[in-house]
Amino acid sequence: MLELGKKQTLQVIKKVEFGVYLAEKETAEKSEQVLLPAKQVPAGTEVGDKINVFLYKDSSDRPIATVNRPLITLGKTAVLKVKEVGRIGAFLDWGLEKDLLLPFREQTGKVKPGDEVLVALYLDKSQRLCATMKVYHYLHTDSAYEKGDQVEGRVYEISPNFGVFVAVDDCFSALIPKQNVQKNYRVGEKLNLFVTEKKEDGKLTVSTRRNAYLQMNEDAELLHKKLQENRGRLNFDDKASPEKIKQEMSMSKAAFKRAVGHLLKEQVILLKDGCILLKEDK
């Protein structure tokens, strides 16, 4: 059976001026044959030879074979570059002559030429190969990562209800839960992350921040730097609203309170009239 989007080893059953016809067996019906264009045929190829090819559709929507290797195959994910954006979607470079369509309805964020996007390859209702940025169901859940590991991930979708969906190493399923999202992210952004939980199904829960006891020193340094940049004064303290703290410091109120407490213990700051002051500037 000829399968679009996959690599197959097929037999040469007929040679013609414009290429060779391939099939699984010599007696294959015409509907079970596919053309490998002449410019793709390896030198010295004869009837009966076997060739490993990839099957897709040409610009006339006809099945065609190629010996070139695509950057993505059916049901798999890959990071591809946007070549142009047209009337029906974006077109991606996937290593073949005909660019791969990423329909607007399959985009989780706006893309432009030059962008690198994580996509999966699927067959649409018209049996055409297309790309989708909705890769949740294509990602793996068998990573070797465990709680506490530092990983790299790429944002592929943002949900107001669940949080920020991330593909760790561009292939493993992960999520920054809504309550842990400390800033506005964008689709395609690459992040350094920490695994906070590995669920029973293998999916990862991740965070841009370490566990509290490891993160506290880093947060305290950030607060100290912010005070120095503001001439030793912040016009709010750890009683400020979570929204204010998130806006000014890109951290949760709990993390901010820990950082303030750490600097108070080290006698670096003092709290006065709802403000935080560097002690040397009191």
Helix % is 10-25%
Which shape, going by the Cα principal axes? elongated
- Oligomer classification: single chain
Report the uncertain regions: none
Content of β-strand: 35-45%
User: Which secondary-structure class do the elements indicate?
Assistant: mainly beta
Biggest sheet record: 5 strands, antiparallel
Order of helices and strands: EEEEEEEEEEEEEEEHEHHEE
Radius of gyration, taken over Cα atoms and rounded to an integer in Å:
27 Å
Tally of DSSP β-strands? 18
Q: How many alpha or pi helices?
A: 3
Overall pLDDT, averaged? Answer: 91
User: End-to-end span in angstroms?
Assistant: 80 Å
Strand order of the largest sheet: 3-2-1-4-5
Description:
With 282 residues, the chain is mainly beta. It contains three helices and 18 strands. The strands form four sheets. The chain has a five-stranded antiparallel sheet, with no helix packed on it. Helix 1 (212-229) crosses helix 3 (253-265).
Secondary-structure blueprint of this entry?
Layout: E1 7-16, E2 19-23, E3 34-37, E4 50-57, E5 63-66, E6 77-85, E7 89-93, E8 100-103, E9 116-123, E10 129-132, E11 150-159, E12 163-168, E13 172-177, E14 190-198, E15 204-207, H1 212-229, E16 233-234, H2 242-249, H3 253-265, E17 269-272, E18 275-278
Parallel strand pairs: 13-15
Antiparallel strand pairs: 1-2, 1-4, 2-3, 4-5, 6-7, 6-9, 7-8, 9-10, 11-12, 11-14, 12-13, 14-15, 16-18, 17-18
Helix pairs in contact: 1-3
